[in-house]
Amino acid sequence: MARVTAAERKAKAVERKVLAAEKAVFRAKAALDKARRKVEPLEVPDYELTRPDGKPLTLSAAFGAKTDLWVVHNMGARCPMCTMWADGFSGLAPHLLDRAGFLLTSPDAPKAVGAFAKARGWRFPVASTAGTTFARHLGFEDAEGHPWPGVSAFTRTPDGRILRVGRAEFGPGDDYCSIFPLMGLLAGGQADWWPKLAYGKRAR
Q1: Low-confidence residues of the chain, pLDDT below 70?
Q2: 106 near 126, Cβ under 8 Å?
Q3: What b/e string do you get for 176-189 counting C-beta neighbours within 10 Å, with b at 16 or more?
Q4: Structural domains in the chain?
């Protein structure tokens, strides 16, 4: 029978600590979800945004036939980080849209929003918030008009009211982009890598 070396025992001990930490994170996330359910919903007006073709899109229309709706607050085509999050959501779009409505909003002009979404191959609806207070009202734009990325979750009541029932900001290491947890598994972690709008020949 092979003897277990001191190095192997140390490695096993570290693995047990990692597993315990992962379980603690799962428990903390469950507690966070429970806490979020207790937050008082925010009633919002039926904002009128703008589709890429210039036609209006009300928030209520974005629900489609669903009772629930996710609205992503994107910072626009200038932001590689926001773009990477949206690229990830595009891959999940069939699953997301089966559960609830999904809309990505951007402060860019309507035509620019549509052109960028088409170039990226996004498979969900997009709209412009230009000229509205939508993002600021929901806490995703500061007093100087600078946007901030994140997501709002809405529900529609039987009498037609729209309630914001959940919100989260986006940033490195959050639960809404799989890139960073995967990077963390590598020997060097993220190192000096950051997302770009294009890579290789397309980046030049």
Answers
A1: 1-2, 201-204
A2: yes
A3: bbebbeeeeeeeee
A4: 42-169 (3.40.30.10)
